[in-house]
Amino acid sequence: MTKNIIAAVYETHGNPADVLRIETQPWPKARPGEAVVQMHAAPINPADLNAIEGKYPVQPALPATPGFEGAGVIVDLGPEVTNVAIGALVILPHNIGTWREAVSVKADELVAVPPEIEPAQAAMLKINPMTAWRLLHDYVELKRGDWLIQNAANSAAGRAVIQIAHDLGYKTLNVVRRAELIAELRADGGDVVLVDSEALRDEVKNATSGAPIRLGLNAVGGESALRLANCLAPGSTMVTFGAMSLQPLKIPNGLLIFKDLRFRGIWINKWYDNATMQERMEAFRQLFKMAKRGLLKAKVEKVYPLSEVNAAVAHAAQGKRSGKIIFEFNDL
To answer: Is the CB of residue 7 less than 8 Å from the CB of residue 62?
Structure first.
């Protein structure tokens, strides 16, 4: 086994394509209670780019290796490890920095993945599908046939919402910015797909025959979020988990006074920090069941080697992509 690995590193905040560099590091060692994981895949998420830019709420000490999400195989164990075995495919914790060829991790923070799930798909289960699962379970008690509405429905989290909701029997009303996405999201299981516009409320009412919508999922903010809120039934809840427009949520007083809407938010990293391992695994088991059936398959637009990290993050920062940009690692 080689004595060195490469890792992506940044020493200052700024444009990711400018500040990231590749660094050679010693092969990690497994101390007591730790496992060495050889990485197989790691996606580039918006939060990764925000962290490198210095815009994320939690910042690691610099120099730092980015990457909130990833999966790999255990190749070495330190003393006192009993919960995982060499050869197991595992999902890494969000605070470790996954854009490196291998890393030593506390073994009790690893989540073992069933062998039926591809490593690249396992690498993308922790953030977007788990966010979707929590959005559909923690805020409004939905029954089969109930409607929910979301913007940015073509995002990775939005697609996961469609797939999970469809499997659970909930109906999704999906709002996008481009008409060419309609057929694609309908094929994924979206019940209704509409292009965002000032006429959204009337179009939603027509599409649902006026059925009440008690859950709204907002990943955009600004005017898009307001149009979503106007589609909700009285006493409903809107949960914000993204701000793609970089515009604040501006809610008219009337939506609070006359419709008694509730506005909530979720940060999935904080959910992981607060959840017990039993609570995490209970949710992962549900996601694994779906993934083994071919659901929750994230779309990938392009795969890069880590050595091309600057080109990869520049690609990931572009709009109108058809899927995720991910790193895949060669066997060392």
So the answer is: no
